[in-house]
Automatic annotation (TrEMBL), chain A:
GO biological process, one term: vesicle-mediated transport
Superkingdom of source: Eukaryota
Family: Belongs to the adaptor complexes large subunit family.
Disordered: annotated segments: 15-35, 640-669, 755-774
Pfam families the UniProt entry points to: Adaptin_N (PF01602), AP4E_app_platf (PF14807)
Protein name per the record: AP-4 complex subunit epsilon
From TrEMBL, chain B:
MF (Gene Ontology): clathrin adaptor activity
The organism of origin for this protein: Hirundo rustica rustica
Family: Belongs to the adaptor complexes small subunit family.
Chain's role: Subunit of clathrin-associated adaptor protein complex 1 that plays a role in protein sorting in the late-Golgi/trans-Golgi network (TGN) and/or endosomes. The AP complexes mediate both the recruitment of clathrin to membranes and the recognition of sorting signals within the cytosolic tails of transmembrane cargo molecules.
A GO BP annotation: intracellular protein transport
The organism's taxonomic lineage, starting at the top: Eukaryota, Metazoa, Chordata, Craniata, Vertebrata
Keywords: Coated pit, Cytoplasmic vesicle, Golgi apparatus, Membrane, Protein transport, Transport
CDD domains: AP1_sigma (cd14831)
Gene3D superfamilies attached to this UniProt entry: 3.30.450.60
Stretches assigned to the AP complex mu/sigma subunit domain: 27-160
GO cellular component: AP-1 adaptor complex; clathrin-coated pit
Name the record gives this protein: AP-1 complex subunit sigma-2
Length: 1100, 185
């Protein structure tokens, strides 16, 4: 023992000088003032000497704990702590156990000595001793000794005292964490603990369940109901008031349960269904303004966003997040940002709502808030905002000093840049990044970690098969892997080689990137013994068509044969050591001299040769001089690592990023300048129009969203002036950051306009519909002007009423609901446009003429031509009366005609009936008299008002029309309505005609909300039971069926032996006489079987 | 709440020595540890390094700043009560606010047990503080949230203990007085 003491003392030279006197280890019975080292010495002496006197040992042990905490070596006392726990009485045992749990960790070898003591104490009749033993077991216990105590602890689960049961469960939890398979067999005991009569024991068992569900959520779905019930009770305040914390019932328990529910309900609609109610309840209950309720709210929000979504709850959760984000309390703001980061991928609009707050947080004095905000931005990185976000990250990087942050942030930044920005980034950026990696920071260790991080993250990225990465990113990846693969020791270089090899085979990899990959392969190969992959690769590429690759393959082959040369050629981590290049090629002097000796001509530089050639030939040279130089330069450049193609392509593509990058400065100049020339040449007029349409739309939106919307200054001079410079900057930043989060249609437009880039969802929606309608109208326009014949089937009438912007679009076919929707969208957007135009007029008079020009294009349509064209086909084509033209209708169909008279029919589908419009046209040159139109009675149809109509006289060459309102009396799929027309010319003539009307003519789409539909569904689904009484006399099948038909409004289709099939109506409203009440009967099969059962009963 | 379980350290109280602050600014930034409890096995060297780093970061924070810190892959939740800082390290997915309330509840427990607790109480009875902590948190998880139950358990054990203390001579008390005097000096 004395050597331990000496070692300890020598390890503590002068340390005790700055020792806190409060903790001064005064030796037992020693004088008050002694030198520091002798104090510790006396403590050590007393500990080693007093092994028999436990009472003093206890005091010494407490001091030893203190010494340990202050950082002094105290391992000499560990054994005594165990001894104290073993041999002492209750008082000493307690301290002994405490010391053991503080000194030792679970893998410490001395812990084995404790097992016996624990077993003895667990069997003790003294409650306190059992408690102490359980406490120490739940903190530290050697894994391999679990079987020794497990049966004892299982026994304790039945103990009468709550505290013992609770601690036993806690101990089992510990066992589960360190060795799950050891407690495999007692899972039913966990369930028993969950159902314990005492809430404390139940709460302890939740730890185990949380852990188990984290590992395998599918195995515990059956417990969801129990957890929900428990949470309901807790939230409802059913627990004893002991568990209240600041008058909130058992917050820890609540959070634990919420977390478990979140895990259970993830991606599982059925399980989630069960918990919606209780989540709603928790949200509602947590209303007191206290940290603890916010903690519960936060957990609730997280759970709601984790489980299968329900719109109602999401809305509430979003509101909660808003509360967090906007809170003046910094802790809550932090949590709000954290929640936003969590939900951002599901719901980017939430970030849009809070964009100004986020911008403010970016400049927050607290670096933690800043960092969380960057994390949030990192999640929303896309092609359009990557430049700004990376800029922000770099700014933060410059400020922060902590190594861990730097490492993770640099990695993230670069990954964001390459994976999103990809080919757009300038070629300098990857080069700079690689230089940063190679040259590193001042601290070697940081470098190491950063490189490790890079290699690991790239390997992980390559794991994902078939993912397209930008070429630049692949190049960076291969360089890093080649250079630093050996830093990652747990990955076999062979694995990396295989990955690179598979990359080489991919078709999307350009030859330049392939060269990078080959270089990496060569580097890796130099540090491994000859591998099969390399040989395979050489084989494969030696016959490659790409000369560059073939060259590499041969080089690699040669190098593989000579390992020593390879090693010296490719030393590890020498990427930034300077290479001395002998520019004069002096080592070739001998070779040259030899050549000259053999009579070779001396070398002349290229330009000299060229001159000589010129002077010799004395002829006109049509070749430009520069060309040959250029080619020689590039051919030498190819052999270098950086091929020149990268430069050219960067200059072409970087235009875009530069544009966005300089947006802030350019904005004012670009304002009001019409963008006529784009990348693709002259921008089409349409784009220009929409651009103009969008700008002023910010006005109505802006008023809705209060001051959060920043208006483009040129358009809104008064508002713009009121905004401070700072605000404007922030808004600019916001617009650049949150670009690309809205709908894609809006983005492409707004990205080009350089102004009004505020992207609120509402607005982009409008953009979308507008653009859609624009397209629709364009299509219609072109249809009207270019495709004349189409007019027969799609009669589009562009009409200008009184020169206003009012315009209507008529539809021919109601079958396609899409078109109807388009139409609707079109109508609304038109009215919007109108208001926009008004705004625009008042705001900017200068652009008035151009605007009118725009609207002229759209409004004045060549409708006369359309009419004339159709008129030329049939001279007397009827046109619908004004008031009916707005309704959906069919084209006119000839019913019948004679020499004198022609009948055309047009179906007009009104909301409540079918309108048959019959046109009677007089083809003769004289008037026709007493024209009488009669529809015959039909069992299926009912003609409202009268079935006849009379025209006393029809003028020559003119058309008369009559309308008949038809309703369906009896449901059928198709029926014929016939009639006749009689007229008086020279003699009375009668013409017969018939019209086929189908069920489709009488069905209208029913507009209802989803809730209504849900109700209807319930009321009409099979779940609704209806008792139908059948009189005993009705025992024939048909009688029974008739009853059913009446009561249930079923329609019998056919009876085949015993099988009855019944029609099922979809959700369409059938016009009277059923008056819209007959709706859906789904699952006709089920009905059918039920029916047959009924039939049997009634038959028997 | 897996916090303490997986990750480094839990309760670490650091203390700014006010007297030193006036004399030497450099030392004043060195907090003294009053209590520490680790729930994951770590070597002494690591523990020391982590403690040093944490004390530095936490003491550098200004009063109006956020109570949460990101440190390596952990979150540090800290709160200051008079001259003591209470810190917890938790995992990223843990709830920060409830951790803050755990700290508060622990302080409440100490307060109730000692009767308006002050730093000296913890210095001279730090094993008691540990006992309370063990009753409240076990193996890194909240064990008993009821204030009444925790204190009942502690008092039960204390009663047994006191009965035995009576038998012993008062040497212990002497040594307490001794250390207290030297502290006052």
């Amino acid at each position: 023992m004395s050597d331990v003491v000496e070692r300890t003392l020598s390890a503590l030279p002068g340390l005790l000088g700055q020792h806190d006197p409060g903790a001064g280890p005064g030796g037992a019975g020693g004088p008050g003032r002694v030198s520091a080292s002798s104090r510790l010495g006396s403590l050590i002496r007393s500990i080693t000497a007093l092994t028999s006197k436990h009472r003093l040992m206890k005091e010494c042990m407490v001091r030893l704990i203190y010494c340990e905490m202050l950082g002094y070596e105290s391992s000499f006392g560990y054994i005594h702590a165990i001894k104290l726990a073993q041999q002492g009485n209750l008082l000493e045992k307690r301290v002994g156990y405490l010391a053991v749990s503080l000194f030792l960790h679970e893998n410490h070898e001395l812990l084995l000595l404790l097992v016996n003591t624990v077993v003895k104490d667990l069997q003790s009749t003294n409650l306190v001793e059992v408690c102490m033993a359980l406490t120490v077991v739940s903190q530290i216990f050697p894994r391999e000794m679990i079987p020794a105590v497990l049966p004892l602890i299982e026994d304790k689960l039945q103990h009468s005292k709550e505290i013992i049961r609770r601690k036993a469960v806690q101990a089992l939890y510990k066992f589960y964490v360190i060795a799950p398979n050891q407690v495999q067999h007692i899972h039913d005991k966990f369930r028993k603990a969950l159902c314990d009569r005492d809430a404390g024991v139940m709460a302890a068992s939740l730890h185990i369940y949380l852990q188990m569900i984290k590992e395998n959520s599918s195995g515990y779905k059956d417990l969801t109901g129990s957890f929900v019930t428990i949470l309901k009770q807790v939230v409802g305040g059913k627990l004893s008031a002991d568990f209240n914390y600041h008058s909130v019932p058992a917050p820890w328990l609540q959070i634990q349960l919420l977390r478990i529910l979140g895990l259970l309900g993830k991606d599982d609609p059925r399980t989630s269904e069960v918990m919606y109610d209780v989540l709603d309840e928790s949200l509602r209950r947590a209303e007191i303004n206290h940290n603890i309720t916010y903690a519960i709210l936060f957990e609730c929000v997280q759970t709601i966003y984790t489980i299968y979504p329900k719109s109602e709850l999401l809305e509430k959760a979003a509101k909660c997040i808003g509360k967090f984000v906007l809170s003046p309390k910094i802790n809550l703001k932090y949590l709000g940002l954290k929640a936003l980061t969590y939900v951002i991928q599901q719901d980017p609009n939430l970030a849009l709502q809070h964009q100004m707050t986020i911008i403010e947080c970016l400049d927050h004095p607290d670096p933690i808030i800043k960092r969380e905000t960057l994390e949030l931005l990192y999640r929303i990185t896309n092609g359009q905002n990557v430049v700004v976000i990376v800029q922000k990250m770099l700014d933060y990087l410059k400020e922060s000093k902590e190594e861990y942050t730097i490492i993770s942030l640099v990695g993230k930044t670069m990954n964001a840049v390459f994976s999103v920005g990809g080919d757009v980034v300038h070629s300098d950026i990857p080069n700079n990044f690689l230089r940063l990696l190679a040259e590193g920071f001042d601290d070697g260790k940081e470098d190491h970690q950063l490189r490790m991080y890079a290699v690991q993250s790239y390997l992980a990225l390559l794991e994902e098969e078939d993912k397209l990465y930008p070429q630049k990113f692949l190049q960076v990846m291969s360089w890093v892997l080649g250079e630093y693969f050996s830093l990652v020791t747990d990955v076999d270089p062979e694995v990396i080689l295989t990955k690179l090899h598979s990359l080489l085979r991919k078709t999307f990899v350009t030859s330049e990137t392939k060269a990078w990959i080959m270089a990496a392969v060569t580097k890796i190969a130099s540090h491994t013994s000859c591998s099969k992959t390399v040989e395979e690769l050489i084989q494969e590429l030696s016959s490659s068509l790409d000369t560059c690759l073939r060259q590499y393959a041969f080089e690699l082959k040669q190098l593989c044969e000579d390992k020593a040369l390879m090693k010296s050629l490719l030393p590890f981590d020498a990427s930034c050591s300077d290479l001395v290049v002998d520019a004069s090629l002096s080592f070739l002097d001998g070779f040259v001299a030899e050549g000259l000796d053999h009579g070779a001509a001396p070398y002349k530089p290229h330009h000299q040769r060229q001159e000589e050639k010129l002077s010799q030939e004395k002829a006109l040279n049509f070749e430009p001089y520069g060309l040959s130089f250029a080619s020689s330069v590039s051919s030498s450049g190819v052999t270098g690592r950086q091929s020149p193609t990268g430069l050219s392509f960067a200059s072409d593509t970087s235009g875009n990023s530069v544009e966005t990058g300089h947006k802030e400065t350019n904005t004012l100049k670009l304002e009001g300048v019409r963008k006529l020339w784009g990348k693709e040449g002259y921008l089409p007029k349409k784009e220009n129009k929409t651009e103009k349409g969008n700008e002023p739309q910010a006005v109505p939106c802006g008023s809705l969203l209060a001051e959060q919307v920043g208006e483009p200054p040129a358009l809104q001079p008064d508002q713009g002036a009121s905004l401070s410079e700072e605000d404007k900057e922030k808004q600019q930043l916001a617009s650049t950051l949150f670009i690309g989060l809205g709908s894609s249609a809006g983005v492409s437009l707004m990205g080009k306009t350089d102004t009004a880039t505020q992207k609120f969802k509402r607005k982009s929606k409008i953009n979308e519909t507008q653009q859609l309608s624009e397209e629709a109208s364009d299509f219609q326009n072109s249809a009207a002007s270019d495709f004349g014949p189409l007019l027969d089937t799609v009669p589009v009438n562009m009409e200008d009423s009184e020169g206003s912007t009012h315009r209507r679009l008529r539809k021919a076919s109601p079958c396609s609901s899409d078109i109807v929707e388009d139409n609707l969208a079109f109508e609304t957007s038109q009215s919007l446009r109108k208001s926009v135009l008004d705004e625009r007029l008042s705001a900017n008079r200068l652009s008035q003429p151009s605007l009118f020009a725009d609207s002229n294009i759209e409004i004045f349509q060549p409708s006369p031509s359309a009419q004339s064209e159709s008129a030329s086909e049939t001279p007397l084509v009827p046109s619908l009366p004004e008031e009916l033209e707005g309704l959906p209708h069919s084209e006119g169909v000839g019913l019948c005609q004679s020499d004198a008279l022609a009948l055309h029919l047009c179906k007009v589908w009104t909301d409540d009936s079918l309108l048959l419009v019959v046109f009677v046209s007089n083809k003769t040159t004289s008037a026709l008299g007493a024209v009488n139109l009669v529809f015959e009675e039909s069992e299926h149809f009912q003609i409202l008002e009268s079935a006849t109509s009379q025209f006393p006289v029809i003028e020559a060459q003119s058309v008369e029309h009559c309308q008949k309102c038809v309703r369906m009396n009896k449901v059928c799929t198709q029926a014929i309505l016939s009639g006749s027309v009689s007229y008086q010319s020279e003699m009375e003539t009668r013409l017969e005609f018939s019209v086929t009307l189908s069920l489709m003519d009488f069905i209208r789409p029913m507009e209802m909300t989803t809730e209504d539909f849900g109700k209807l569904w319930l009321s009409l689904s099979n779940d609704v039971k209806q008792n139908i009484k059948m009189s005993p006399c009705q025992d024939s099948l048909s009688a029974a069926l008739d009853t059913l038909q009446q009561k249930l409004k079923l329609h019998r289709v056919d009876i085949i032996d015993t099988l009855i099939s019944i029609t099922a109506y979809t959700i369409w409203k059938v016009l009277p006489p059923d008056d819209g009440t007959v709706c859906s009967l789904c699952q006709p099969k089920g009905e059918g079987t039920a029916m047959s059962g009924d039939r049997d009963e009634s038959g028997g | 709440m897996r916090k303490y379980q997986k990750k480094q350290l839990d309760l670490l109280k650091s203390y700014v020595d006010r007297e030193q602050e006036q004399t030497d600014l450099k030392i004043s930034r060195q907090g003294k540890l009053r209590l520490q409890k680790w729930y994951v096995p770590l070597s002494d060297k690591e523990k020391k390094k982590i403690t040093r780093e944490l004390v530095q970061t936490v003491l550098a924070r200004k009063p109006k700043m956020c109570s949460f810190l990101e440190w390596r892959d952990l979150k540090i939740v800290y709160k200051r009560y008079a001259s003591l800082y209470f810190c917890c390290a938790i995992e990223d997915q843990d709830n920060e606010l409830i951790t803050l309330e755990i700290i508060h509840r622990y302080v409440e427990l100490l307060d109730k047990y000692f009767g308006s607790v002050c730093e000296l109480d913890i210095i001279f009875n730090f094993e008691k503080a540990y006992f309370i902590l063990d009753e409240f948190l076990l193996g890194g998880e909240v064990q008993e949230t009821s204030k009444k139950n925790v204190l009942k358990a502690i008092e039960q054990a204390d009663l047994l203990q006191e009965a035995q203390v009576m038998i012993y001579d008062d040497i212990l008390e002497d040594t307490y007085m001794e250390t207290y005097e030297s502290y006052c000096e």
